[in-house]
Amino acid sequence: MKDLLCPLCGRLIDHHINGLCKDCFLKNITIANVPQVIHTIICTECGAVKKGRRWEMNDTEMEELIKEQIISSVKINPILKDYGISVRLASRDPFIFNGKIVVNSLIEGTKIDIELETQVRVKKETCIICSRRAGGYYEAIVQIRAQGRFPDEDEQDQVLDMIYNIIDRQYNSGNGMSFITKIEKLHEGTDVYLGSNSIARQICRSASDRFGANFAESSTLAGRKDGENIYRITYSLRLPRFVSGDIIRFLDETILIRHSGKRTSGLNLGTGHEFAEHTNKLKDADKVSDIGSAVSTVLISVEDDIIQVMHPQTFQSITLQKPAYLSGTGGEEIKTVVIGDSLVILPPK
Ligand SMILES: [Zn+2]
Ligand SMILES: [Zn+2]
User: Fold this and answer.
1) What are the backbone dihedrals phi and psi of residue 74, each rounded to the nearest 5 degrees, phi first?
2) Ligand 2 center to 164 CA (angstroms)
C-alpha cells in the first residue's frame, strides 16, 4: 500500500526508513565504509602480523588472514543492529589483494546491501622472534647430565622428547620465544640452547617431576641492552645416579632398582620385599653391581627356606637363605650376581 510520501523527493513509498524513502535514506547516511588501502606487515618466516609496534602470532592461512583484516577495518554505522559482512578476494601477486565487501543489513524491515571495495597491500618483514631465532639467539642452556655417571642415549632421548613436547605446547599457545636454537651432543650428555629462560626453567621442573632429576642454575653476563645487564642461564640437569637394573647397597641392604624417578623403587634382594624410597634419600647408596653382570648357575636343591646353589665361579655348592621370589625346587637354572664375597640370587624377571 503506497500511501506515504517521502518528504525529500516526494515519491510515494510503501514503507519508510527514518521517515524517508530508501534512496533518500541512503543518500544521507553512511551505512558502512572501509579505507581504500589497508597496509599490513606479515613475517615471511612464521606468518606473524605486525599490529602497531607488536608482532602477533598467527597460524591462519594468508587469505583468511587478509579477509579478517578487511572485516576488522570495515566501519559500520551503529544504527545497524543486524548485519553480515562477506568478503571476496582477488590477487594479482602475493603482495596485493583486492577485496570486494558486501554488507547485508536489515533496517526497519528493509533489506539494504552495501558494496565496498578495498585493497590490502602486504609488506613482508622478518619478525623479532624469527630474526632472533635466525641469529642464534638464546637465553638459556639446559645441560642434560646424570649424577656420577654419563646418561645413556635412551635416557637423553626421553628428556629430549619431553623438551620437544613442552616447546610445541608453549609455541602453540602463543609463546613465539618457545624454540630450540641448537642441540649439542657431548660425551657427557646433551646441551639444549633455548630461546626462552622461563621455558628452560619449566623444562627443568618437568624433568624433576618425571625423571627425578635435580638441577642447579648459574648465570653468565652476556652483554648489556638498554642499560641493563643481559644474563644467560645455564641449567645443569642431573638425572638420578641409579637406573633400572642397577644393584645398590643402601643402609646395609642390597636393592635391585626397577624404576628411578622422583621416587626409586625396586626389590630388596635380601628380604624379597618391595623397595621404595625418595630418590634424593639415596645419596649415600653405592652401586655394587647391575643386571648386566648376572651369571647363570644351577639351583641344586631347596629344603624349606634353605637352598643349595652352585657358585658360578668356584663351582662349589654353597648354602643360602631362600629368597621369597625364588620358586624352583632344585635342578633349575637361576640368575645370580657375585658381589664381593657373597652370591646374590636375582629374581626370574
Ligand atoms: Zn526520497
Ligand atoms: Zn616470524
Assistant:
1) -75, 125
2) 19
